[in-house]
Structures are given as C-alpha cells and as structure tokens.
Amino acid sequence: MKKPQTTRFIIFSFLSIFFAGLCHAKTSIILLGPPASAQAKFLVKKLGVPSISTGDLLRAELSSKSEISLKIKDTMSQGKLVADEIVIDLVKKRIAEKDCQNGFILDGFPRTIPQAVALKTSNIEINYVVNIAVPDSEVIGRISGRRVHPASGHTYHVKFNPPKVEGKDDQTGEDLITRKDDSEEVIKKRLEIYKSQTNPLIDWYKKEKNIKFIDVDGSKDIKKVSEEIGKFF
Ligand code: ADP
Predict the structure, then answer these.
(1) Closest ligand 1 atom, CA of 56?
(2) Which pTM does this prediction carry?
(3) 3-state DSSP assignment of residue 167
(4) What is the arithmetic mean of pLDDT over 128-152?
C-alpha cells in the first residue's frame, strides 16, 4: 500500500503538469474559404491572437519594392498564386515572431497541398481548420464592392461596410482604392484557381487526426457567420 503522502504527491504533480499544459495551450487556426471570406478580424478580437494574411504579407513586399516584389508583381495582378516557396518562407518567418507564441490565425494560407505539407513538416501546430463555404455569386458581389485604404490595409465594402464619407478612409480621410486584382475578370480567375488548388485541402485536413475541422455556411451576412464560428471558440 502506498502512503497517503505519496499518493497526494502524485496527484499534486499530475494536476500541476495538467494546468501548466492548459496555460500554454495555443489556439492556431486556419481559415479556409474563397476570397473575401472576411472572418479573421472577429477572431483576432475574440481570441487575442494575431491574424496572418498572406495577401497582406505579399502586398507589404510589393509596396516595399523588395527583391521578392519583382517576382510576385505580375502573378498577383493576374490573380494567380505566388510560388509556394516564397509564401511558405514569409509565413514561417512571421509565425516565429513573439506575438504568435500563444497562437495565430492563418488567413489565406495554405492555399495548396504543398503549402499544407510545409506547415506540417515544419512542426507548426494547427488546432482548428474553419472551412467557410461561400457561393461564387456572393464572392463576386463581396469583392467587386471592396475598397481598400492602401496605407493601413483597412477594407470597406460599398454596400455592407461603407466608409463614413464615400471613397475616404474613416481614420485618415485618405482616398480608398479598388485593388487591381478585384476586377470581375480577375476575380473569376481567382475563383477558378481556388477550386482547383485550394479545395483539395478540405479533404486533406479532414483526414488530419489532431486538427478539429469546422464547416461553416459563409453565405449569410458577415456578422451571422461570425456568430456561427464564435460558438466553437
Ligand atoms: P483574397 O483574400 O481577396 O483572396 P488575398 O489578399 O488573400 O486575397 O490574396 C491576394 C493575392 O495574393 C492572391 O490572389 C495571390 O496572388 C497571393 N496570395 C495570397 N496568399 C497566397 C498563398 N497562400 N499562396 C500563393 N499566393 C497567395
């Protein structure tokens, strides 16, 4: 028979390890969904972890006119996917930053199977994949009304989220623009690419045992979709 003191010690050690584990629990989420699924901001507020948008990372490269910008400029304006190696490298560097240590939200990454494999082989832990399904017609409507403030990256929508003054950023009063790749022709191209290159990730992630896969109907208005997602976090 074990002495009561020994038993107490074992229980105490077990609970300490358990709670230490809980305190360090990460929330790392992948948002899968066609262009303009628009749920990252809400999760950042709710969970207090940063969102990593590969579109934003790549646009930052473009505006800093870095060496990479020369390689990605045409690809992006045509709505095609940037080479896997470039995006993977940017994401890995971003995740290594301090603010990601309690988790992060990946928005727009991965978009291809090789990108998902790169995450896995780099031992970057992912806990959830939220798959937001949006019909094509809705995507086209959302993107064609999108307006952006280039300096801050703030986005608006002429109908669903208009700025206080038409065509002007709420905070700075500066002009809003329509992104070059938000024209209807380029949007159709992006949707095509989404279907062929990104949709296969749905089955890929459904098979991953340690990742919770969440399906969400993204056709409703953005707030309702947020409420739906919020139930899981
Ligand atoms: P949206 O969310 O409207 O689709 P993003 O801002 O996420 O647009 O992406 C804009 C462009 O950046 C894409 O059309 C593509 O050229 C490039 N891009 C973003 N993420 C990736 C990625 N994971 N892999 C390859 N290219 C990407």
Answers:
(1) 6
(2) 0.84
(3) coil
(4) 92
